[in-house]
Amino acid sequence: MSRWNPLVIQAPTDVSADETFDLKGEICPYTFVKSKLMLEMMESGQVLQVIVDNDESATNVPKSLTNEGNTVLGCEKVNETDWMITVRKK
Length: 90
Prior knowledge:
The protein is α+β, with helices and mostly antiparallel strands and 90 residues long.
């Protein structure tokens, strides 16, 4: 089974987020659960950027959100500790 590589996807520069959700300090599975709950409050097609500060969340959140039917537009490291996950709601 292939492992999700968070370094692979860079978000398109022409996509702007409708919401940004800072989940620094949170760990899995809470980062996924809270991201999913935030997406549930958004409309279909809207874009959410989630900021996490651990590699496990940068790996698991995009994979789990994709499994939920959403489209991960990007997952990129923005500094030494933080990752930005950009996802479009299904």
